[in-house]
Amino acid sequence: MKPENPHKLPFHPVSGEENAPCSPGQTGLWESGQSLPIRFNPWKHHLGWVQEHLERARNASNEPNFKREIIESVRTINSNHVDVYTGAYTVSSIGDRLDAFLREAAIISRKELTEWLGRRKYRTCSLPDGSAWILREGNSPQPCIHIHPARTGAKHIRIQGNAWKTAIVQHLLYPDDAAFDTARINAIRKNILGVSPVRSDRLNREQLIRMFRLLSGNCPEENETKKE
């Protein structure tokens, strides 16, 4: 029996395959039955989730498709800036806390959600660890709430999407080697991710090295808000 995964999502993946290993990599749908469902992409927004699944892939000799599924999930991350939560709350804990917030506000229908969000069409919710979360209406036929970390909160970093994807795949394929190898990185970007080669400027190089270290757990200072 596999050990319980502390980051296992309490919601049903969009694919319909309950608790599939990588299904939330696309986007997960959290449902309590008492408020609107919450949509969240942990590969894009949750450092702990990514680290845990990279570690699982490292030891997944009996799951030959696991790395491929991770790559497919990571490829869906947009190329623009992404906001990543670096705190200690698991995905389940975040969902529970935000669901409680929504239930208290009695948001149980699209009409109530639209009125509650107001003209800005989003709201910010702060959690006890200092992190802040953006809540907005999800872009799907089924009424739902899309969430992601807010730039104004603690325990958050904002990074370029392609750098984040590159760092994840580099760590997935070369878990024991965080060296900055331009040829290898560009092979990953071109042949696996389908994005342009990395620029040679210092800022881009430093950002990627920082992401490699972050995924390895070697950047404790990332627990505070940082913007790039």
Structure description:
The chain has eight helices and eight strands. It is of the alpha+beta class and 228 residues long. The strands form two sheets. A six-stranded mixed beta sheet has the order 1-2-3-7-6-5. The protein has a two-stranded antiparallel ribbon with strand order 4-8. Strand 6 (132-137) and strand 7 form a beta hairpin. Helix 6 packs across helix 8. The longest helix has 14 residues, at 91-104.
| Low-pLDDT sequence parts | 1-27, 221-228
Question: From the alpha-carbon coordinates, what is the Rg to the nearest angstrom?
Answer: 18 Å
Strand content: 5-15%
Taken in chain order, the helices and strands follow as EEEHHHEHHEEEEHHH
Give the spatial strand order of the biggest sheet: 1-2-3-7-6-5
* Gap from first CA to last CA: 42 Å
Query: Helicity range of the residues?
Result: 25-40%
Briefly summarize what is shown.
The protein is an alpha+beta fold and 228 residues long.
Tag the structure with descriptive keywords.
single chain, 228 residues, alpha+beta, two-stranded antiparallel ribbon, 8 strands, disordered N terminus
Topology:
Layout: E1 12-13, E2 28-30, E3 38-40, H1 42-45, H2 47-58, H3 66-75, E4 81-85, H4 91-104, H5 110-117, E5 122-126, E6 132-137, E7 145-149, E8 156-160, H6 161-173, H7 182-193, H8 202-215
Parallel strand pairs: 3-7
Antiparallel strand pairs: 1-2, 2-3, 4-8, 5-6, 6-7
